[in-house]
Structure of GNAT family N-acetyltransferase:
Amino acid sequence: MSEPLAIRRAARADIPHLVDWNAAMAQETEAKALDRSVLARGVAGVFDDPRRGFYLVAERGGTAVGSLLVTYEWSDWRCGDFWWIQSVYVVPAARRGGVFRALYAAVRDQARAAGAVGLRLYVETENHRAQRTYAELGMARCHYLMYEEPLPA
């Protein structure tokens, strides 16, 4: 049996892992090569302003094996925050080992304790494995489509 997972808030010392993992996730899921200097500033920006959110890191045997980012969306309809789960990454050797499930449980517990009104995430339309995992955790596909317009820097 493998060692238990420990979930903790990320610290600035985790930034190199978070940058590497975000870059790997973008490459794996969207075949996108991210600008690492922009990515590093973006990750550091979460630590610079806690209103942006926070990262959680999963460790097994003292080694970081995965992470996710939580950001907030105010809902005037529900008078509360939705917590968005983003930038999920689990190192390949730790996949299918309960890492995301443990991270999700920690987010859910923290969101409930903070009075959040719900959890949300988005997933690539062809990532059926992730969609099954989310459904197994009790999440349901909602009726919203996502639109985007990138703005010039």
Observations:
- The helical segments are 15-30, 36-48, 99-114, 128-136.
- The mean pLDDT is 94.
- The domain at 5-136 is CATH 3.40.630.30 (Aminopeptidase).
- The chain has one domain: 5-136.
